[in-house]
Automatic annotation (TrEMBL):
Keywords from the UniProt entry: Cell membrane, Membrane, Transmembrane, Transmembrane helix, Transport
Name of this chain's protein: C4-dicarboxylate ABC transporter
Spans traversing the lipid bilayer: 51-69, 90-107, 113-130, 137-156, 176-197, 218-236, 242-263
An example molecular function term from Gene Ontology annotations: C4-dicarboxylate transmembrane transporter activity
GO cellular component: plasma membrane
Amino acid sequence: MIVIGLLIIIATFWLIIKNYETRLVLALSGGLMAILGRDLVGSVDAFIQQFVNSGLVPTICTVLGFSYVMNYTKCSDHLVAMMTNILKRVPMIILPSTVIVTFFLNIALPSAAGVAAAVGALLIPMLLALKVKPGMAASAVYLGTWGSVISPGLMFNPQIADMAKVDVMTVIARTTPSVLISLGVAAVLLTIMAIVMKEGVGSNKDALATDEGQVVKVNYLYAVVPVLPLILLVISSKQIGLIPFISVPQAMLLGTMIGFVVTRCNPGEATKKFFRGAGDGFADVVGLMAAAAMFCAGMESIGLTGALVNVMKESQAAAQFAAAAGPFAMAAVSGSGNAAALAFNGAVVPHAADFGYEIIELGSVAQIAAALGRTMSPVAAAAIICAKLAGVNPMEIAKRNAIPTIGATIVVTLLLL
């Protein structure tokens, strides 16, 4: 049964890499394993339970709704433009600053593809105007698109919080210092590569004089609105406690209402955008988590989860390596780390104490490694967007991001585990 289960898992990930519908592949694979393990009903129940998970569903749906409203009101554009205007004043540190600014914008705007499009449209032309080589310009923006790992709206943080029986800000507070150190490592490594490869500011001698991208007159009040929910969550968290506790859904709804008032948008249309985002969050994110839960239940019924846990009990090094290397490699190949990270978190992380780790740390390493693996993938949507904006092949970005992302993964794994 173990061998059959391993073959099913290999086939599952191969189909995902080949861009078959991830939810369908995970659900069918989980169902097949559950049939072999004589527990199809249990696998289906695991699928259904995710749809009524009170800790995850409201968080994911309200975050996506808020994000859609920010795009509709153009508040996201003003936030990006404000950060871009700051960067223009420091050309000598423009590459690491681009990585870091994109990273922090990705916390407020959790979609990697969305932030790549919004930030790339402004920063990549600016970098090209400063005579940065196109491949390096695209890589700098793309390398910052894993900031969502410390966003309360990322599906994994509520999932880990639910398993650990803590609030989502506790998870983020525990992982943020290690993530920020890893961010610094990635930014420095890319800067060193730009120097060694002679692709930094002023290196592209053949570049024609160009405009520095579109000019947006920043409305600073609009620019602040996308980060208001984050501010509310931080100051109301148990670690700070300046105001009474506010949950993620509450913060997102408050941010949405403030956006309505500040931008004086059409409330009817903005409301439609909010619920469209909430619906897409349910379909795309909650649906994926439900399929992953069915997959994990199938693994457990066939005995594969128990075998994997037993191997990890024998060695902390095995658990440490599996948590980082598996999701990273899967994401780098497929362009999405969601399936691998969800499978690992669902099957292995609940047993973290059995091999000497805590749920928060082990689960966080898996999802951070997946995000970093996706940040060097040439087939991810964010990579394709950045490559298009810079006029290069996505593979050129992947080659430049390989060392920084691998370095950051090693550092965050060693710091957290």
